[in-house]
């Protein structure tokens, strides 16, 4: 009898201990869940904040306000006093081009050259516009060699339609570039084989995306482009004082909010999609905005896959500085490229 009572008492104790352990495990599980939820929510919240900071488009021409093809100046202290007289293009028209999606209108300039010469679509950089001084300088180089030039603002930039005020790393922008090509083809009766691409900085990545998406583009020049999307996002975070490991949260929130698959069109893949079409990449080794390793990745891929790619890597130059520091050679090189590539 005594043993039975002891056994019963032990079972009660064991039950109490088990119940206590179970309650403690539940508390630990709830605590872990709560902490995980807080951390995840915080991570995604920070990602959302970063997305809002880094992916903003722009309105108007910012520091380049007042620039037109007929009258612009170089607003770069290092190149103060640069004489643009011979690059001015008074023969320009303000036009509006339907964008790559319904409801998108692109503010643009048409700069006429020789009707028998090809047309070059010029694409500006991040939070910039068609009024960017260095871009206008390159346009002047082309136009004084009788090329027709079209310059435009992407959606959510400059004076074009503000769709949601955010950029999409070429996912939507490349559709605007293709729409400009269609406008040139239809309005100016220009064959697709005579419509070349030129992109500067972020625009270098965007023209790579368009070149990859539409094989009707016969040739592309990329000035100081980025090659790897995840890499450039991490580098952009570091440049703006954020740790690079936050990139996945920012990308996730951006894709949730916009529906855009931001990593789906890396410019590097344009090299593999060239299919015999010529490419030309230009970059300065002193570029701290978009490191020269991005262009080198493209060059390495081109060599590995036997792609027709010209390259010009210039020692010590800053971001998109080559048109200013090596103007004559720059002009000669891009004209020679287009003369051979566009028929």
Question: What's the helix and strand layout?
Answer:
Elements: H1 2-54, E1 92-98, E2 105-111, E3 119-123, H2 133-143, E4 148-152, H3 173-187, E5 195-200, H4 202-213, E6 220-223, H5 229-239, H6 247-258, H7 268-272, E7 279-284, H8 293-305, E8 309-314, H9 322-325, H10 327-341
Parallel strand pairs: 3-4, 3-5, 5-6, 6-7, 7-8
Antiparallel strand pairs: 1-2, 2-4
Helix pairs in contact: 1-6, 3-4
Concise description?
This protein is an alpha/beta fold. It has helices spanning 2-54, 133-143, 173-187, 202-213, 229-239, 247-258, 268-272, 293-305, 322-325, 327-341; strands at 92-98, 105-111, 119-123, 148-152, 195-200, 220-223, 279-284, 309-314. The chain contains ten helices and eight strands.
Summarize the structure in words.
- With 343 residues, the protein is an alpha/beta fold.
- It is 44% helix and 13% strand.
- It contains 10 helices and 8 strands.
- The protein has helices at 2-54, 133-143, 173-187, 202-213, 229-239, 247-258, 268-272, 293-305, 322-325, 327-341, and strands spanning 92-98, 105-111, 119-123, 148-152, 195-200, 220-223, 279-284, 309-314.
- Strands 1-2-4-3-5-6-7-8 form an 8-stranded mixed β-sheet, sandwiched between helices.
- The longest helix is centred in the N-terminal third of the chain and has 53 residues, at 2-54.
- The termini are far apart.
- The model has no long low-confidence stretch (mean pLDDT 87).
